[in-house]
Amino acid sequence: MTVETHKEQLGFQAEVKQLLDLMIHSLYSHKEIFLRELISNASDAIDRLRFDALSDSSLYERDAEFKIRVDYDKEARTITVSDNGIGMNRQEVIEHIGTIAKSGTREFFKSLTGDKQKDANLIGQFGVGFYSAFVVADNITLTTRRAGATADEGVRWQSEGQGEYTIENVEKATRGTEVTLHLREGEDEFLSGFRLREIIRKYSDHIMLPIIMQKEEQEEGKEPEEEVVNRASALWTRPRNEITEQEYNEFYQHVAHDFGDPLAYLHSKMEGTQEYTLLLYIPAHAPFDLYTREFHHGVKLYVRRVFIMDDAEKLMPRYLRFIRGVIDSNDLPLNVSREILQQNRQIDQIRSNATKKVLGLLTDMVKNEPEKYASFWSEFGRVMKEGLLEDRANRDTLAKLQRFSSTLAESETQDVSLEAYVSRMKDGQDNIYYLVAESHAAAKNSPLLEIFKKKGIEVLLLSDPLDHFLGSELSEFEGKKLQSVSKGEIDLDKFTDEQEKEEQQKTADEARDLVERLKQTLQEKVKDVRITQRLTSSPACLVIDQYGIDPSLKRLLEATGQKVPHDKQILEINPQHPIINRIKSESDTQRFNDWANVLFEQSVLSSGEALEDPIDFVNRLNNLLASL
Fold first, then answer.
1. What is the pLDDT of residue 423?
2. Cβ atoms of residues 170 and 144 within 8 Å
3. Is there a contact between 265 and 256 (Cβ–Cβ < 8 Å)?
4. Which parts of 420-539 are beta strand (E)?
5. What per-residue string of b and e applies to 129-161 under the rule 16 or more CB within 10 Å gives b?
6. Nearest CA among 432, 434, 436 for reference residue 464
7. DSSP E strand stretches across 422-551
8. Are 571 and 518 contacting, i.e. CB atoms less than 8 angstroms apart?
9. Residue 101: what pLDDT?
């Protein structure tokens, strides 16, 4: 049969050109990784065929004996990795090889540090291991045919990795993909069967499919013999005491497409009414696209060691979406679909237990390896805060895992636990105090903290977007109420001596008339005016009542397009401040009105909000300065 070749020469997507250059210059010390990545891709292709064939057995094309082949040719200086998996059609080759069809490409390049070791890890997380072959090859030919397609629908892709590639239709009798690398000069070490076997056993021994190579020593006159060079058994089915740390790490690198080792892992077999095995990993570094909308979960689902699906989001709550690994069930049906997963009680139980296991692993890390947990929090703290909103069943555990910055430290490092805060509370202190602001600097310098600093009372400083929901989602911890210092009245009488109380009462009495005048003047702008004891060096501040919505939360909700009621705030004045004493005796009505509005507008600015009319504020302030 004559095949219509339809040969085209196309250019790589701009990001692929950058990636190829980065690969070649970053992975020079990890050259052998190329074979792991190509074998991993072959394994994934076979897994996908197995899953699709559950509903369409014709895709097997009378060949259900899955395997991966690795061949080399010293004279031609080539290495070939082939599989009989799902294969690709022409459009899929263009999408998966000629472009990076994954969201977050720009974020990936923004994440690059210039540190070749760190950038190599990012490359692995990005899932573009195919391109690592260009580290050792100056020409790559990929020939493929999708399962179920006719023999004349094969596709050949070829590139020298210089920005362009050719693609054409070819005849291919069998399904699957074959990748041939034409090695660069100086890469002859990989033209050794012993070297290739060493790499396969080091990185791919755990792959459940046989990896086939020709035997090195062949008998003359006989057909060439082949051998399986990997163990070809599911790592998670073996007893834990038979698996080395290195094997656990190598399996992680396979399932996570990561070049580094995991931060931690758990391997657990559940028995009883349900039987399933968990092998779950916490990465050492957050994926660059962790916060993109299209980010996928990283847990693979197997049923009786048969791969079912990637990114089984029903197996892990969204806030644990960074977890990598496998869950293998003995009880689910082999033809389980995503729709069935959505309403399967067994899956709900597996998810619940898997979540508890991961949180238990983190809790143990807090107790036994605090430095490692600090590293975890710096990478994944923001998503762990999502858990307080999502996972009410595990809220107590999650609360103990949270970390915050506080007024006790100069840096914005989040390293204060709620347990540590409670252990440092002053005698008689009933509340855990916190302040939410749009940045750490805004929180740290807020006038609302003045009295707390004076009394030596620690306040948690919260500036992550999710922190705005802390008070509503976690109202108390170990019997201590969480209290926002920007809400309601703050009662610190327990920490005030009698003489100080008398002085406060005296100044409050003397300022009563001023309070009434300010209420009258600002009645359109504020809900109330009252004396405060929370300020020591600022003249005034704005607070909300006990059940109001924090201004920074309002701005966050408005930014997402939600309508939020604009409740007036409460102006609190410091009766001992020189400005308050100055305007107390102001008899000129216009000047008093200017002072009142300046106090209000300064308080608006110090709370992080914008003024409705900044020009009016500047003119008013200039007039007052000129009159002094």
1. 95
2. no
3. no
4. 431-436, 460-462, 476-477, 480-484, 526-531
5. bbbbbbbbbebbbbbbbbbbbeeebbbbbbbeb
6. 436
7. 431-436, 460-462, 476-477, 480-484, 526-531, 540-543
8. yes
9. 40
**Cα–Cα nearest to 5, from 147, 141, 139, 157:** 157
* 483-486-488-492 Cα dihedral, nearest 10 degrees: 70
pTM of the model: 0.75
Residue 570, both tokens: 């409460």
Phi-psi region of 564 (alpha: psi -120 to 50; beta: other; left: phi over 0): beta
Contact 414, 405 (CB under 8 A): yes
Local structure of residue 384 (DSSP, 8 states): H
β-strand partners of 457: none
**Which residues are 8's β-sheet partners?**
167
Look-up: residue for tokens 């895992």? Answer: 401
Rounded CA-CA distance 138/131 in Å is 11
List average pLDDT for each run of 10 residues in the chain, which is 628 residues long: 69 68 66 87 90 89 94 96 96 77 51 59 58 89 96 94 88 96 95 94 84 87 87 86 91 83 95 90 85 71 80 84 92 72 82 95 97 96 92 94 93 94 92 90 90 92 84 86 86 78 82 91 92 89 81 68 79 91 88 93 87 90 85
Tokens of 339: 């729709």
CA proximity to 458, closest of 500, 420, 501, 488? 420
* 620 alpha-carbon distance from chain centroid: 48
Beta bridge partners, 10, equal 165
What is the secondary structure of 290-320 as a DSSP string?
TTSTTPPPEEEEEETTEEEES--GGGS-GGG
